[in-house]
Structures are given as structure tokens and as C-alpha cells.
């Protein structure tokens, strides 16, 4: 069985084909990062228009890469939300039209469910149950995951998502958009302890986060100091250390509260090398296990959508041909809405 996955929720066009026998047989990605960089953030209309240009050629490239014919595809999975409405509509329209033409079902996928299961594409996938830390440009959430469709929200950010805080702080430091990965590279040259940023909401009980204050703290630190290259690196380091400490403290608390030993980290920020290293050490010291996807499957990609599509296909959670043309996207869509009770 083979599923074609289409991801267009934000600024990456991701196309992949997942085969239940051979695993991932095609993976294509086009990043619009350069297109939006000059505006310092994503321009939704430009994102949608660019997906229009990229999606079909990337599907053709994926078919070539895997040497698979359209008639060998069993269903098309696409990101139906959450995300930018225009960008989502492009992927959904193409997915539903192709499914109709090829006479196969289409499968709407929740973007965060894709992220959550991206470590399943790796060699040592996590077993249920586990705690998942979902950290992306739009979300910072801790879930207790007992099975597919069993997601219990343990805590979330009450303001900025952690990726958003990375991007905003990067902008304050004069770095390009999206700044998370660039800030992290700069932080490597920074001296630990030169500045001391707060670890927000770690001194009180609970599993919620707050990251908007860190960005403000960075703005104040920048305004009070004469910026040079070393100083910028030191600020990047202090910011990153504070974020990592906070994520570790809350993830450990979630493991202790649930009594679980397995932690999945997923979403764009889980590509952060320093976070992966420090979190893994902490979890192993706790006799637990940490799971994450390879860095290019942490950020948006079609592979995770094709994979979750396969899981849903096997469970019969698909749109029939007759409903394939009623295109339905959900820009706002909590993951817990998927929960099967
Ligand atoms: O999951 P993702 O690709 O898109 C969303 O669903 O939001 O996450 C993108 C976010 C951006 O904020 C980006 O700056 C951040 O992930 N990011 C990183 C790193 N790589 C991507 N943040 C910190 N360190 C990184 N290495
Ligand atoms: Zn994402």
C-alpha cells in the first residue's frame, strides 16, 4: 500500500510517498524561506501562491524518485489544518482533485499529529504510551499520548510559541527569518553565563509555558549593551540556555506526573542540537528514553503526513470519492479535537 502525502500548511511544500512495506520511498521539499526573508516573516498570500507553483511539480518529482505510477497510489493524505488558510486550501484542493481523478480516497491530516509521529519514521520508533513535547513555530504543548487518537493536553504556552520566541529574538539580534536555526548557530559561539535570562513559570506548579517575556528580556538586554559580535553570540546563548532549561524542567515534570519514562520531542524546534543533546542526557539520567526525528523531519515535511495518512488509511479514516470534492480546511484546530474517547 502506498500513500502520497502533501504538506502545505505554512511556508514549506512537502511531498512524500510512504509504502507500508518499504517505508519512505520519496521525499521532496521546497522551502519558501528565501521568499519571505526580506519581509522578516511569512506573507500568507505569497505562501499560498508559491504552493500553487510548487505542489504539482514536486508530486511529479516524487513519482519519478520512487518510480511509482499514479495508479499504484492507494490514497492521498494532505494537511487539513492548522495553518494558513490560503496555503492549506492549495494543498487540500490539489489532493482532493487528484484523488477524485485517480479514483482513490483523500485523507485530511492534522499537522500536529504529523509532527507528533515524525519519530515513527526513524529506526527506533517510540512505543505507546509516551509524553510528547510539541515545539514549533505556532505551538508549544505537552501531551500524554496513550495511542493514535488518544491525546491528553498536559500544558501549553499561554502566549508565544517557543519557535516564535526564537524567531522574534533572532530578529532583535538582526538575524534573517526564520531565525531559530541561525540563532542556535550563533549561540554556539556565545559564552555561557555572560547573561542570565529568566526560566519562565518554572518556579510555580503546572505544565504551562510562557515565552513572550524572554523576547522582552532580550530586547532590554540588547538596548542596555553596546552590541558587537561576541555580545550578540552571548545573548543568543543566554536565550537558548533559558529556553532549553525551561523545556527540560517542564518535560521532566510531565514525566514524573504521568509516571511515564518515554519522551518524544517533535516540531521545528526539536531540530535544535543543543536541546536534543541536553534533553537526552537528562532523560537518560532518569532511566528514560528520548525520541526525535532526524532534523529535516522535525521541521515541516511531507513524510510525516504520508506516514500518518497510512495509519489513518489502515484504520479506514478516509474521505470517500463522493466527499473528496468537498474541500474542508481548518486553520484553527486543536489536536485534542481528534481524541477518540
Ligand atoms: O514545525 P515547523 O517547521 O513549522 C511550524 O509548524 O511552525 O517549525 C518552525 C519553527 C520556526 O520557528 C523555526 O525558527 C524553528 O522551528 N526552528 C528552530 C530550529 N530549526 C527550526 N528553532 C531552534 N533551533 C533550531 N535548530
Ligand atoms: Zn509544523
From TrEMBL:
Record: residues binding Fe cation: 111, 115, 300
Predominant location: cytoplasm
Species in which this protein is naturally found: Candidatus Pantoea carbekii
PROSITE patterns reported for this sequence: GLYCOPROTEASE
Keywords, in A-Z order: Acyltransferase, Cytoplasm, Iron, Metal-binding, Transferase, tRNA processing
General function of this protein: Required for the formation of a threonylcarbamoyl group on adenosine at position 37 (t(6)A37) in tRNAs that read codons beginning with adenine. Is involved in the transfer of the threonylcarbamoyl moiety of threonylcarbamoyl-AMP (TC-AMP) to the N6 group of A37, together with TsaE and TsaB. TsaD likely plays a direct catalytic role in this reaction.
Gene Ontology biological process terms from the UniProt entry: tRNA threonylcarbamoyladenosine modification
One Gene Ontology MF term: iron ion binding
Entry EC no(s): 2.3.1.234
Swiss-Prot/TrEMBL catalytic activity: L-threonylcarbamoyladenylate + adenosine(37) in tRNA = N(6)-L-threonylcarbamoyladenosine(37) in tRNA + AMP + H(+)
Subcellular location as annotated: Cytoplasm
Protein name: tRNA N6-adenosine threonylcarbamoyltransferase
Superkingdom as given in the UniProt entry: Bacteria
Amino acid at each position: 500500500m502506498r500513500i502520497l502525502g502533501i504538506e502545505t500548511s505554512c511556508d514549506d511544500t512537502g511531498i512524500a510517498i510512504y509504502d507500508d512495506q518499504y517505508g519512505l520511498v520519496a521525499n521532496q521539499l521546497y522551502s519558501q524561506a528565501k521568499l519571505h526573508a526580506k519581509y522578516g516573516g511569512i506573507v500568507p498570500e505569497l505562501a499560498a501562491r508559491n504552493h500553487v507553483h510548487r505542489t504539482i511539480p514536486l508530486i511529479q518529482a516524487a513519482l519519478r524518485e520512487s518510480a511509482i505510477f499514479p495508479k499504484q497510489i492507494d490514497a492521498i493524505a494532505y494537511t487539513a489544518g492548522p495553518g494558513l488558510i490560503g496555503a492549506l486550501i492549495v494543498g487540500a484542493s490539489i489532493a482532493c482533485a487528484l484523488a477524485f481523478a485517480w479514483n482513490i480516497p483523500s485523507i485530511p491530516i492534522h499537522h500536529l499529529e504529523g509532527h507528533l509521529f515524525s519519530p515513527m519514521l526513524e529506526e527506533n520508533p517510540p512505543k505507546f504510551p509516551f509524553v510528547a513535547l510539541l515545539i514549533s513555530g505556532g505551538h508549544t504543548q505537552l501531551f500524554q499520548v496513550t495511542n493514535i487518537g488518544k491525546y491528553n493536553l498536559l500544558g501549553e504556552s499561554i502566549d508565544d510559541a517557543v519557535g516564535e520566541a526564537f524567531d522574534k529574538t533572532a530578529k532583535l539580534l538582526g538575524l534573517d527569518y526564520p531565525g531559530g536555526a541561525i540563532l542556535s548557530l550563533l549561540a554556539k559561539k556565545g559564552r555561557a553565563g555572560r547573561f542570565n535570562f529568566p526560566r519562565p513559570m518554572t518556579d510555580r506548579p503546572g505544565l504551562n509555558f510562557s515565552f513572550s517575556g524572554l523576547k522582552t528580556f532580550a530586547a532590554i538586554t540588547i538596548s542596555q549593551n553596546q552590541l558587537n559580535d561576541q555580545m550578540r553570540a552571548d545573548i543568543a546563548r543566554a536565550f537558548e540556555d533559558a529556553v532549553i532549561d525551561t523545556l527540560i524542567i517542564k518535560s521532566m515534570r510531565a514525566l514524573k506526573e504521568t509516571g511515564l519514562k518515554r519522551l518524544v520531542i517533535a516540531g521545528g524546534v526539536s531540530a535544535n542540537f543543543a536541546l536534543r543533546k541536553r534533553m537526552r542526557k537528562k532523560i537518560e539520567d532518569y532511566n528514560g528514553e528520548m525520541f526525535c526525528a532526524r532534523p529535516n523531519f522535525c521541521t515541516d515535511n511531507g513524510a510525516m503526513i504520508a506516514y500518518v495518512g497510512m495509519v489513518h488509511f489502515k484504520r479506514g479514516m478516509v474521505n470517500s470519492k463522493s466527499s473528496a470534492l468537498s474541500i474542508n480546511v481548518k486553520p484553527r484546530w486543536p489536536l485534542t479535537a481528534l481524541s477518540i474517547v
